[in-house]
Each structure stands twice: as structure tokens, then as C-alpha cells.
Amino acid sequence: MSRSGLWLLAGFGLVLAVPLQVGVLPHLMPGRWAPNLGVLTVFLAALRYGEGPGVVFGLVMGLLYDRFTVGEVGLHLLLLPCVGAATAAVRRLIPELTLSGLLVLLMVVVVATELAAAGLFHMAGSIRLDGTLTARQLLPAVVANVLWGGLMVLLVETPGRLARRS
Amino acid sequence: MLHRRRRSARWILAVLATAVVLFFLFPQTRNRPLSLLEAPVVWTASRITELAAGVTGWVAGTWTEYVDLRRVRRRADQLTAERDALEVALADAREQAARADRLEALLSLKERVERPAVPARVLGTDATHWFRSLLVDRGGFDGVTVGDGVIAPGGVVGRVAKVTHTTAQVLSLYDRGSVIPARVQRSRQAGVLVGGVRPSAVDRLAAEEGADLPPPEMLAELKYLHRSADVVVGDAVVTSGQEGRFPPGVPIGTVVRVVRTKTETFLKVYVAPALDFGTLEEVLVVHALPETPEAP
Predict the structure, then answer these.
(1) Inter-chain contact B127–A137, Cβ cutoff 8 Å?
(2) Chain B positions in Cβ-Cβ contact with residue A36 (cut-off 8 Å)
(3) Mean pLDDT of A14-18
(4) The domain spanning residue A53 has which CATH number?
(5) What domain range is A33 assigned to?
(6) Is the CB of B123 inside 8 Å of chain A's CB atoms?
(7) Which residues of A touch B204 (CB under 8 A)?
(8) Quick one: angle between helices A75-93 and A51-67, nearest 10?
(9) Nearest 10 degrees: CA dihedral of A82, A87, A88, A89?
């Protein structure tokens, strides 16, 4: 993808994602059913542009997300660069991932991120992990992120694939 | 030839002139019955006149109707546009009225609180789904500090957990980190309201008793009430004001379940908060009372 695409994604991630997440999505869909735009943006950046942009996006989005949550400062700062690095590493190891493979990767990343966040918040004492709570929180979040993220992946990946095939 | 024609024309004119003169000189002739020769001529002429009048009237009517139709259509378009504009204005006016009502209630609450307080607008919620917090548009520049109580006309919202210069993050009383001194309004039994009720406990309770409880994420627990305490389902819970961050008597919610066991010293009292956090738009951030200097 071109450099302008990177700037577009950066603009969306840095300028729009957090205001949308904090101020708009809660009005459109219940909290747990709202996608985590931070994770999805970092995932897309890492998928398209590799480790460098993935980790940088993760750092910046992590800072922003830590700023707008009452949870411990630094948790997202730690978590989101890892999302970027892991996604980019998988993409580098398996360069010819099919669309369904990308969706599976997205699902794995989302579940792992949510579990890691839950574990870290639990260790920090901010939340109390409980089987019911975790299932109630995780399931809608995973479904929402996979659906919205899948849509974003399809939008980003399909044109390039179609062009290559033709 | 030409000469003959002129002569006959003169004759015709003379006859016509004579006829006109006779017609006006002898008006009584108008009242006489028509002769056999006159009758068909007059009848035909009148039918033709009627027909012409009818056609003219029809054409004129159709044209007028067409013009009127165009005018009506234009007017209808204009009225539709005006109605749309008025509907928008009405919605706007209703919104303004609702906002005015809310602000009036907030102002009245501020006057009742009798301690330093600053009104704030709700900007959004927490960035993650793990916490239930609100972002408000007042921060350190407005004197907001961590721990300040946040209330709304309907009841307690929570307390300030994070502050920047211009914004603050308010931890709702549902959240696990929330601790608010409270009491049962009827019996004056005091305890501490803690958020973050364990969902499995509530689910188990609902399954055992078949009770219709609100979802666990919309419950808080009133702790440290002795098992002999006088508290029943339906009791109102209000702030006790003991800590100084919340004024006393602000509604918190209603008791929805009381669990008494012989083995435990304290009751488990579940409280459903009075406020719907999803609809909050303005809140009041209450500062702690300034410490009074000790008398020398």
C-alpha cells in the first residue's frame, strides 16, 4: 500500500479512533458490543506496513487509550505494541495468508488481547476475574471486534488481491 | 363591374342603416312575436352564441384551473419546506427545553448541596469495556481533584478517579473501585456501598431464589451491615456524608436483595442504583469541604 494509505490510517488512528471510541460508539452500540478501534487500527497497520509502523501505532494508541481509561496507566502502552509486533511477525512468517487465514489471525489477536488485558487488570487489582464476568465481557467484545475488524480487513485486502489476480 | 359593385354596396349600407334607424325608432317592434323567417335565424344564432360562450368558458376555466394548480403546487412545496423547517425548529426547541430543565435541576441540586461544586458535561465513556467510567469536561483548572464526589439530580454517579487540566474521568458507582459511604434511609443503618458485584454470586442467587435481579453490572453491594440490621427489599439507600466528599442524603439506589446467613456476621445487601448512566448528560462535581483551621 502507498505511503498515503499509511498517513490515512495514521490520521484515522490518531485523530478519530479515540474520540469515536469514547464519545460516539457508546451512543451507537452498548459498551461491550463496540469494537476496540485501537486494537483494530494497530492490527491493520501491522498487517499492511510491518513491524515498525505496527509497533509505533501500538505505542501511540496505547498512550491514547491509557489516557482515556480509569485503568492502570501503561497497560495499553504495553499491550498494543505487542499486538502490532505479533501481527506483523505472523504476516512476515506467512506472507501468503488467505483472507480466511487473516480472519483467523484477527480472531486470535483479539482473543489474546482481551485475555491479556483482563489478566493484567486483574493483577493490577482493577477488576476481579470471575468466570461469568470474563465470559460476559469477552464474548461480545470478541464478536464485535472480529466482525468489524473482518470488515476492515476485507476492505483493505480485497482490492489488492483482486488486482494481483487480474 | 367595379362601378356596379360599389352601387350594390351602397344599397346594402343604406338598407342596413334604415333597418337600424327603424329598430331604434320603433322599440315596440321588439315585443312582437318573431316571424317565421326570424325565428330559425335567432335560434341558430343563439345556439352558436351559447356554444361559443361554453367553449370560451371551458377554455378560460381550464386555464384558470391550470394556473391555480401550479400556484397550489408551488404553495404546497413552500408549505412542505416550512413544515420541515418548523419540525426541525420544534425538535430543537424541545431539546433546548429538556436541556433547560436538566440544567435547572442541576442548579437546584447545586444550591441544595451547600458546598463547593462545579457543573460538568459528560463527554464520553471509558475507552475500554472493562471499566464503567465517564469522561467529563471539567478538570484541574476548575478545582476538580481525585476523589471528588459526582452527583446528578437523580442520584449519585460516582467519584473522580483521574484528572487532567481540562477533563476528569469519573468512576461510576457500579465499578469495582468505587467505595461510597451510604446508609439505609428508613432505618439509618450505615455501611459502605461497593461496586463490582461478583456476577456468579448474583447469578447463583437468581437461580436459587428465582428472583428477578438486574444484571450484575448494574448492581452495587452495601457492605458492613450487621446481620441484625433493619433493612428490607425496597429500602432507599442514600449517601451518609461521613467521608465529606458527598453531601448527606443524596439518593444512591434501592435495595433489591438482602441475603442473611447464620454463619456470616454481615448481610449481603444488593442495591440497584437510581441513575441510568447511559442517559447522563450533565453532572455536578462536588469538592470536599475545606478544612476549617483549628481555633487557637
Answers:
(1) no
(2) 128-129
(3) 80
(4) 1.10.1760
(5) 3-165
(6) yes
(7) none
(8) 160
(9) 90
